[in-house]
Specification:
289 residues; single chain; globular; 11 helices; 45% helix; two-stranded antiparallel sheet
Length: 289
């Protein structure tokens, strides 16, 4: 009950503007913003991993970025990116059809999981369902087809993120740390060929987690498994230019209680966006002078 009261007070304070914009926009360091937000929500910092990279200012922040854990659905972005690479290399195209097998079925949202099954599905449909609805059956089809035809899926994730694992857990299927997920987002943000992926991410997950307080410009993919809550995102400005990447991973802090996941991740992201906007503005003023 005490934690619920704290969350409600924080939310009311945030939306009422009682925290002046300058409080976080003018913070000396990203670490100050992160530390204050974690303390306000009375969370254990050791159970939170964060990676943040500002593509405009060059600023970075990392917290427990090498703690490996189950990545849940966050690696669906990397799965889509692996397939975009195969399409770009001419090995597949968006209309290439992948076979369905009942062994690929997994409960969850999405049309492929919940509608009558077909023998084959085009890659474009599988990727859309996987990213927009987080369709697990579509994801399983893509993963298995990759294993059967192109190599080790986990190795593909590590190569995409340019990571040489320092933790053996990263060799486990669908395990990741914040650094790996952030590197994958940076790769996706930096190449125009992945825009079909980020366009879907911009549409999906409305009002949840990183998007709960930053309503526009966030291309996100969340992940949830048992007591694990993660979210990953790329923020785009109104010119569709990528501005920063952010990864928040958690474990053992039960963020599902009282909507804490949405509030903590959403408010932290909103504060970091304030900080980014102010830093970018200051850089522009300095450049013009």
């Amino acid at each position: 009950m005490k934690k619920l009261f704290v969350i409600v007070c924080l939310w009311l304070t945030f939306i009422s503007g009682a925290f002046p914009a300058s409080t976080f926009a003018q913070a000396k360091e990203i670490r100050d913003i992160v530390t204050q937000t974690i303390q306000e929500f009375q969370l254990d910092a050791n159970a939170i991993s964060i990676a943040y990279t500002d593509l405009v200012t060059g600023d970075e922040f990392f917290l427990n970025e090498h703690v490996s854990m189950h990545a849940a659905s966050t690696t669906k972005v990397a799965t889509a990116a692996l397939y975009v690479d195969l399409i770009e290399n001419g090995e597949l195209d968006w209309n290439s059809e992948l076979p369905y097998n009942d062994a690929y079925y997994e409960d969850g949202a999405g049309d492929i999981t919940n509608e009558p099954k077909r023998d084959y599905y085009p890659i474009e449909e599988l990727i859309y369902q996987m990213l927009y609805y987080s369709d697990n059956t579509a994801w399983n089809m893509l993963i298995q087809y990759y294993y059967d035809n192109f190599g080790d899926f986990q190795q593909g994730l590590l190569d995409l993120g340019h990571i040489a694992p320092i933790d053996d857990d990263l060799w486990l299927v669908n395990y990741a740390d914040a650094e790996l997920l952030n590197n994958i987002l940076l790769h996706v943000a930096s190449h125009e060929k992945y825009r079909p992926i980020t366009r879907i991410m911009l549409e999906a997950q409305e009002g949840r987690l990183l998007k709960s307080h930053v309503k526009q410009g966030m291309a996100t993919k969340y992940g949830q498994y048992e007591d694990i809550y993660h979210d990953t995102g790329i923020y785009f400005n109104n010119k569709n230019q990528p501005q920063y990447t952010i990864v928040i991973m958690t474990h053992d802090i039960y963020l599902n209680e009282s909507g804490i996941a949405d509030d903590f991740m959403g408010i932290l992201n909103a504060r970091l966006k304030e900080w980014h906007d102010n830093r970018t503005k200051m850089m522009t003023i300095t450049y013009r002078q």
